[in-house]
Amino acid sequence: MSPLTFVFVKYSKAEFLLTAKSATAKSSKSATEKFETSKSAFETEKSAFETEKSSFETEKSAKSATSKSAFETSKSAFETSKSSKSSTKKTEKSETAKELNENKMQILIKTFFIITSFVCKKIY
Known about the structure:
Low-confidence stretches: none
Number of helices: 1
Largest sheet: none
Number of domains: 1
Number of strands: 0
Order of helices and strands: H
Helix content: over 70%
Strand content: under 5%
Shape: rod-shaped
């Protein structure tokens, strides 16, 4: 091998190694950049998820409070209605009892007059 060929081969090897190292460095840098980009995208997605989760929890809490309030209002209205109906039934029963007593009295009075008139007719 001639000295010139030897130098050329050495130079070519060195250039090849340098080019390979440069390509590897560029590839590594590109991979690092891709990783950083992916990591940043992941962090953004994670933050968006946390925000969405927080929003969901807040909405769930608000709905729960609203539902509970609506339930309490409905329960209160039901209790009032139940009490009102009970009171109305008692009043109706009381009125019905009064009417029955009045009817009984009228029947007794009529019976008394009928018997009295019958007795009077027998006597006279």
